[in-house]
Write a structure and sequence with these properties.
By secondary structure, the chain is mainly alpha-helical. It has helices spanning 4-27, 33-54, 63-69, 74-87, 92-99, 102-113, 120-136, 145-168, 170-175, 178-198, 214-239, 244-251, 253-266, 272-290. It contains 14 helices and no strands. α2 (33-54) packs antiparallel against α4 (74-87).
Length: 301
């Protein structure tokens, strides 16, 4: 029996990511993706470094630390950027469901890059989850078909970057404490996003900052704390006392909160085919995680 305190931590982590995604979707009507991400990561980086300092875990500069920090270009850098660019073109509900397919990409990349073999029953579950993705990417009533296909494609590209991060940073997690590791990786990601935004590669850079209402900046900062700071802290706190296999099951709640939040706050709905696809994705992921396939050793995105 999982203690209620730990259940609250893990459910809270999933809620922070799922509902934070909904908040980001609303903020994208006010801010370009690159600027929104820079504000979100900036607040998260400040929180993570404060937590790292309070825990007495600020690492000394080293080439090893610099090398592992570069994986932050994949996640949060490119992963979050593609995710926000896609979110601007699709719904929060679909983005949450497509983002939940990250274990599938991890599995495929581990097979290709690391040469790991995949048991037949996991191949079947992966096939069912992929069918679910096809159904979720079906036409949505909220945006044009071409627009949402571009958006879904960018979300999936961001998910692929996150999966590549998982495959490449497996050793870093075992060599460095997760808290300073997340701080240096998010710092590297923030630097990358700042440069891309400065060079005009992330979208509109003609924004007049004085024309943006104060509540938009506050909302952007809060969404960063929610998605990238608080979610990580709650998840890491729960993971200290929970087996990885149990913690992984709570991550399947992330798209649930995303879909419910999209419905409650943004008026989004899913078609019957998309509901079926969501069921296939979540069901396959739960069964995979019960079989021991998980990426729960890292914080939720």
């Amino acid at each position: 029996m999982v203690p209620l305190r730990l259940v609250g931590m893990m459910v809270g982590s999933a809620a922070c990511w799922g509902l934070g995604l909904v908040l980001s979707k609303a903020l994208l009507h006010e801010l370009p993706a690159g600027i929104l991400l820079a504000v979100q990561l900036g607040t998260s980086v400040c929180l993570l470094w404060a937590m790292t300092g309070a825990a007495g875990r600020i690492p000394p500069p080293s080439w090893v630390l610099a090398r592992v920090s570069l994986t932050g270009w994949l996640e949060p850098g490119l992963s979050y950027l593609f995710g926000l660019l896609g979110l601007a073109l699709t719904t929060a509900s679909q983005a949450a469901l497509l983002g939940a397919t990250e274990p599938l990409w991890v599995m495929g990349l581990a097979t290709v890059i690391l040469g790991e073999s995949l048991p037949r029953h996991l191949q079947v579950l992966a096939g069912l989850a992929f069918l679910g993705v096809v159904l979720v990417v079906g036409a949505t009533p909220h945006v044009s078909v071409g627009q949402h296909l571009w958006g879904d494609g960018l979300v999936l590209l961001g998910t692929l970057c996150a999966a590549l991060y998982v495959v490449l940073s497996g050793r870093a997690v075992s060599q460095t404490h997760p808290l300073p590791l997340a701080a240096v990786q998010q710092t590297a990601g923030l630097i990358l996003i700042g440069l891309l935004t400065h060079w005009g590669w992330t979208g509109d850079t003609t924004l007049a900052f004085s024309s943006v209402a104060w509540w938009v900046w506050v909302g952007a900062a809060l969404s960063g704390l929610m998605q990238y700071g608080l979610a990580f802290w709650l998840y890491l706190s729960g993971l200290r006392e929970l087996p990885v296999s149990q913690a992984a099951l709570f991550l399947t709640l992330i798209p649930v909160f995303g879909v419910l939040g999209g419905w409650l706050f943004l008026g989004e709905t899913l078609t019957s085919g998309q509901f079926l696809g969501a069921g296939l994705i979540l069901g396959a992921l739960i069964l995979m995680q019960r079989q021991g396939l998980t990426v729960a050793g890292r914080p939720p995105r």
